[in-house]
Write a structure and sequence with these properties.
2 copies of one chain form a homodimer. The first copy, chain A, is α/β, with parallel strands linked by helices. Chain A has helices at 10-13, 20-31, 46-59, 77-85, 93-101, 145-155, 179-188, 210-221, and strands at 2-8, 35-42, 62-66, 89-91, 115-117, 121-123, 132-135, 138-141, 165-171, 192-197, 201-207. Chain A has 2 domains: 2-158, MoaB/Mog-like domain (Molybdenum Cofactor Biosythetic Enzyme, Chain A), CATH 3.40.980; 165-221. Helices cover 36% and strands 25% of the residues of chain A. The longest helix of chain A has 14 residues, at 46-59. At the A-B interface, helix 1, helix 2, strand 2, helix 7 and strand 10 of A face helix 1, helix 2, strand 2, helix 7 and strand 10 of B. Chains A, B: It holds the Pfam family FLAD1_M. Chains A, B: InterPro entries: CinA, FLAD1_M, MoaB/Mog-like_dom_sf, MoaB/Mog_dom. Chains A, B: Residues 4-162 form the MoaB/Mog domain.
Amino acid sequence: MNVAVVTVGDELLAGQTTNTNATWLCERLNERGVTVERVTTVPDRVADIARVVNEYRAEYDAVIVTGGLGPTHDDVTMEGIAAALGRPLETHEEALTWLEEDGYSRSELTEGTAELPTGARALHNEAGVAPGAALEDVYVLPGVPTEMQTMFEAIAPAFSGTPTYREEVVADEPESALLDRLEEIQDRFDVSVGSYPGESVRIAIESTDEATVAEAAAWLRERVDTV
Amino acid sequence: MNVAVVTVGDELLAGQTTNTNATWLCERLNERGVTVERVTTVPDRVADIARVVNEYRAEYDAVIVTGGLGPTHDDVTMEGIAAALGRPLETHEEALTWLEEDGYSRSELTEGTAELPTGARALHNEAGVAPGAALEDVYVLPGVPTEMQTMFEAIAPAFSGTPTYREEVVADEPESALLDRLEEIQDRFDVSVGSYPGESVRIAIESTDEATVAEAAAWLRERVDTV
């Protein structure tokens, strides 16, 4: 299964917030064996949200959208999803009932708070107010990290694939000096290898077979200067 | 001026690294008055890099690409850029000379280390080895943060626009309770207003006129429960 993650928010594009929601979602999806093919941040604009979501729906198995839910003028994500799917927004009775159970009265609730694209399944916000939505292959979650995380756990079973196992070997050699062994490990073992230079070089070894990863990592550890 | 930022790396998509390069670049660009319209993370795959870079070149004034430079098999960004621009890779003599000056001998250098798309201007990597490239409206920077940051400073003058001023007011009220004042501030002042709920609600007030921002922020501070 492969998915795209779309994070909505002018604040992300202005560099005022680091996109830790994307990291968190990618890590959870990866653990579940799901491949994330794109992470894209778009502005708080209906047309941009709709375009990107539709492009990714056409290409991947599912799209997870976070951010831009709520009552204020810059919360336009649901409108973008409605536009993408060609469905009007309408008040979702179940979502409204949840909000009432959480202590909000109908009259007090801001117009639009419980509006979701027609036909969407409402996702309860256990940690906040604004409901999320699931509709066809699109999942819409809030942008506040605790709310997003709690809501994702409720939809997590929809995301599954072949788990990938991973081990890291940290080498205290220049990346260019490691090339012979990086080549050899890929010849010897059925693994994919990533090489991430920094202070040292982190070499990530991955495979869907746990024993192969362990064997390849052990082989490499004996052959590089480890930190 | 508007730009897109493309960050390349399977590791980002697996949630093993938080995309702080994107945050840093967005912040620098924003300070220079440049609008970032998209931040997209793509896998270490030539075709994906080429597609996304070409889509964004068609739409925005410039594209900044980071990550995937270097000598290993998973460093395919230059190949992706070459494919996007329809130019072959070739050894860049100036880049090779820099590397020699940095103490690498030609024979010792891994094949490809100084290969850039034909016609590219090489960008010296003051903090590392792999050179970057500037070609038409595409700027290619390394993924190691210190290297990326140092190289960006060298190309920063290419990015300019109308600076936006910003002030934040942190309100200790529910976001839904603030709606009347969020509406009124936008009626009274020529500012754009973003509202970011969390523990409290951060209200960001922005305009290209510094005095207007200060005036609007002062007006709002008197009218919300501040933290």
